[in-house]
Amino acid sequence: MNPETPNITRWKCLCAYDGAPFDGWQSQRGGRAIQDVIEARLKEIFGRLIRIHASGRTDAGVHARGQVFHFDAAWKHGPEKLRAALRGGLPWQIQIKSVRAVTADFHSRFSAKGKLYLYYLHLGDADPFTRPYAWVIERVQPLDIEAMKKGAAILRGKHDFRAFSALNGPPREDTVRDLRRLEITRRGARVRIAAEADGFMYKMVRSLVGALVTVGEGKLAPDGLRELLETGKRTISVQTAPPQGLFLEKVFY
Amino acid sequence: MNPETPNITRWKCLCAYDGAPFDGWQSQRGGRAIQDVIEARLKEIFGRLIRIHASGRTDAGVHARGQVFHFDAAWKHGPEKLRAALRGGLPWQIQIKSVRAVTADFHSRFSAKGKLYLYYLHLGDADPFTRPYAWVIERVQPLDIEAMKKGAAILRGKHDFRAFSALNGPPREDTVRDLRRLEITRRGARVRIAAEADGFMYKMVRSLVGALVTVGEGKLAPDGLRELLETGKRTISVQTAPPQGLFLEKVFY
Q1: Backbone angles phi, psi at B77, to 5 degrees
Q2: Residues 36-65 of B with CB under 8 A from A
Q3: Which of these, A119, A141, A125, A118, lies nearest to A189 by C-alpha position?
Q4: Which among B71, B102, B133 is the end of a domain?
Q5: Which secondary structure element, helix H or strand E, spans residue A116, and what is its range?
Q6: Residues B157 and B128 in one domain
Q7: ipTM of the complex model
Q8: Quick one: A126 and A245 in the same domain?
Q9: Does some domain include residue B37?
Q10: How remote is the C-alpha of B99 from its chain's centroid?
Q11: pTM of the full structure
Q12: Record: contact A97-B131, CB cut-off 8 A
């Protein structure tokens, strides 16, 4: 509650979305970003533009099970009714999982202590219920999962991840991140890569996954990942994994 | 191999599809039935109309993990190349899982000894990855799963299922089916209903599921299902469950 605007509350919202039908999180000309769709609904409810602030943007095609955003608005009817009002006018591909009032010092992005992403690979032919939610790798030569696990052990920890970012040109921003968890688990044809860090750069998870798959293909030794960390130079070994395998699972506060 | 047309082989195909973007299995004016899409691809491969014959039609919105169809065509390059040719030109929502040559006495529909369908309910709020593949039941009062299991025990076995068909008017066709399995399993918010029989009538699985949900809601006692079997009269207790929860899982030969 802000003492200068006593009616205004900060609302923290947890949401899930299927990224396929949208142009990513961040507002776009044309209005088919997830942010645009939610802000359009808020405008219907409150009669004016209300900006929402997410923990971070997700790219076109990336999914979320635990994205967090906040906004400030005067609403007297409690969080459950606000959630119902929001849900009522949103496409089913966006789910508002919870709404709660928070103090004005909470910020979805700046208060975040870390994030967990999950990425799914599917090895071999995939049915239509898997394809929209995984990177389907159909090649005959199976991926070497043990080599990928060795690679993950090299990448884990606090490093300069510049080589796994989409950055070009001279160093400008801080590219050191603490990759607290990078875990590969296989169950049958399904491989899950869990990545948790204090923060991720633009396309960093998809670049880590792409490099690990290059290792799994035998085109890069696990030790090659150490070289990428040390030189900070992105090479063609760092392919960008396709977006539909990626889920923003949880934001930690 | 037909001795009169020595070049013609009968091909048995196993396929999976997401029912959402199509107008059901059976050929439609406008051509957005699954049958139309596959026949259009066969026409591209063989240069002429080739009719396909499925184990049975599925309604608009119903999914399949194990639909079977067959067709007759002259093809010299073996089943794997035929499968690749078919797959190459189909939308990803239709997967050709296998192709094999069978004898001319095989018929997808008439040779079938039984079918297994799975139906998924989701209790409570559902995320966007569940909604397209389940009947989401959000009401506050939870379903009485034990009552539904009692109801399933009454429905199992060989009965006249006329009350669970879409038939109107005087009895004309045989409406006795052997429901060998009707099994309800719950895991958290997810309820799975497995139905296996020697055959199913039009909308029969969705009618069985709808009636079981009516029982779960407490609007019909399990014994009410016995009465439906005995009178053969469909009542409002027999709602038709929505198509997106239903999967044709397997056809037995």
Answers
A1: -100, 10
A2: 63, 65
A3: A125
A4: B102
A5: strand A114-123
A6: yes
A7: 0.89
A8: yes
A9: yes
A10: 20
A11: 0.91
A12: no
